[in-house]
Amino acid sequence: MKIMSNEMLIVSYRDALKSGKDKEWAQLLKDEIEKRGLKPFKNK
Pfam families this protein is in (predicted)? Predict the structure, then answer.
């Protein structure tokens, strides 16, 4: 995976969830978000 800023990582994750097509990519992004300690949604 190419290096992404925190903002780009979250935007990519949200887009992957909305499209619902590539679950493996969404899971990879989610793992990286959790590793960095980010919260992709305000409610969570």
Answer: Sda
Residue 43: its pLDDT value, please? 65
Query: Residue 17 is which amino acid?
Result: L
In whole numbers, what is the pLDDT of the chain averaged over residues?
87
pLDDT at 44 over 60: no
Q: What angle do CA 7, 9, 12 make, to 5 degrees?
A: 110
The two structure tokens encoding residue 43 = 């409610």
